[in-house]
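Two proteins, back to back. First:
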Amino acid sequence: VEEIFELMTNEKMPSSISINILPFDEFRILHSRFGAWSNGILGFSINGSEKKIFARENHLDSLMLVIGHEIGHVLTETLPNKHDEEAKAFAFSIEWAKTIKKHNIANLGLNIKDEIDMKPARNGLHDVAFSFVNLMVKKGRKMNDLYRDLIKGYISVFDRIY
């Protein structure tokens, strides 16, 4: 994780971010304290004075992508709009996946497709945010720029004009 972060940002991974990988049952019990449970949940994060990432044990390639998405959430303050917050995390995680592929981190490069095609939950939040980010990718938008523009409030999932 630290290697990917440094290659992607040219900075050290913030020590304020903790990453916890838990067996399924522990993960489910912990997540249930924060919201409704679904077997499709692979990770979640707490973004406040403490920045904590929780991921469910999984194959290394999937696990690394989940961690990248959650880092996208906790690296900056939570945005007031939930859809923009998810778009921010997806933009970060797409760049994260590209970095893994480009540098073949942990020999996972071949496991990541050239066309990043994540399968977000169809819940009106994750799927809508990912569709927005995917549209921006197709329009040639750089993910680092999209991430920054979402953080600064320059662009929103709900803008009528992209």
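And the second protein:
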Amino acid sequence: KTIQAWFMADLGEVFVSYSWDSEEHTKAVLALSNRLRGDGIDCVLDQYEVSPPEGWPRWMDRKIASAGLALVVCTENYLARINGEGAPDKGLGVKWEGGIIYQHLYNQGANNSKFVPVLMKASDKRFIPVPLQGASYFVVDTEEGYQRLYTRLLGRPPAEKPPLGKLAPMPWK
């Protein structure tokens, strides 16, 4: 078994949390998820579901809990809903997911090994939720940005660490 096959088996599913800001944004999130799936990442997205038998709240809770990683697609609307702002009857899915995400971070003592901030454009950086601001974030509006996210999902660092060499001998006097 290759290292990549081992890691991918270990990664499992990748949950995608986002807000339905607009039809364009929803399609962009779907396109990102589809591309990741095409590249071997098992993304879980509500758009792939019709109506989970356990209902959306339990489905979200179960999928976030079982995911190896969760992508958090940060936008102004996403942050507002996570923070409980806006109409009380709008964006209930994001509000629910936000509560689950915050609870996971709380339970882990604020250590974040699961939630990956993703930006569709660099200007959305200011909309990363506070508990995720210390994590590396990924802007996926370019091929380079997508590749950075992809290597993060695979657990590959940006540079390969060379083997440690031998210490140079001390000069004798």
